[in-house]
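Please fill in the sequence for the structure shown.

STRUCTURE ENCODING:
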């Protein structure tokens, strides 16, 4: 049996004073295979960027204490390379121009279309040389398919572990696309879910 290989996800920091927006962005980006941290206090953003090793910052424009442009100015003092996407419910030509002058790579109006946001993120990732390989995309599809099938059957990870003989930790990592699964492991999962193994590959 081949050893599970950890994948290195792209790290994203979401800064928004609205906890619901943070939760939505975390769910959306995590589902797409990114490692996400959210922050509701814009004052802490520059320090997080300085120490967090982030590839992308998603930054709300209108926040108390500091607005998004002030935060972006602080971020640029500690990291002039990290990609920043601004999103706002109050777009204007002035803030769009100022954002671009501070090297923001995207400026989106809220509420935004998730597919439009994904296109911006994919473009950023490609530009930074962090484009996902077909193998990583496959891991994500397999993980999402397994999780969906497991939930359809109302099975917990613990129950799946009993059925497959695999650890809860490994099953969780496979579902989150953090580890690659051997064919043997996928066969056990497919058997436990009572589906052909090819079904785990979704539309890939």
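FILLED IN BY: designer on duty
SEQUENCE:
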């Amino acid at each position: 049996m081949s050893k599970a290989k950890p994948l290195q996800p792209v790290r994203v920091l979401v800064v928004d004073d609205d906890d619901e927006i943070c939760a939505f962005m975390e769910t959306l980006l995590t589902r797409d295979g990114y490692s996400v941290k959210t922050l509701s206090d814009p004052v802490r953003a520059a320090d997080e960027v300085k120490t967090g090793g982030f590839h992308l910052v998603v930054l709300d424009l209108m926040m108390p204490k500091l607005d998004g442009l002030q935060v972006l100015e602080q971020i640029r003092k500690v990291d002039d390379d990290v990609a920043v996407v601004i999103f706002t419910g109050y777009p204007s030509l002035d803030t769009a121009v100022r954002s671009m002058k501070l090297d923001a790579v995207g400026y989106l109006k809220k509420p935004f279309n998730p597919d439009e946001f994904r296109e911006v993120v994919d473009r950023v990732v490609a530009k930074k040389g962090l484009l996902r390989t077909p193998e990583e995309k496959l891991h994500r599809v397999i993980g999402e398919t397994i999780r969906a099938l497991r939930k359809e059957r109302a099975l917990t990870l613990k129950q799946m572990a009993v059925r497959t003989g695999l650890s809860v930790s490994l099953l969780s990592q496979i579902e989150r696309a953090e580890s690659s699964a051997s064919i043997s492991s996928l066969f056990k999962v497919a058997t436990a879910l009572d589906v052909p193994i090819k079904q785990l590959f979704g539309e890939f």
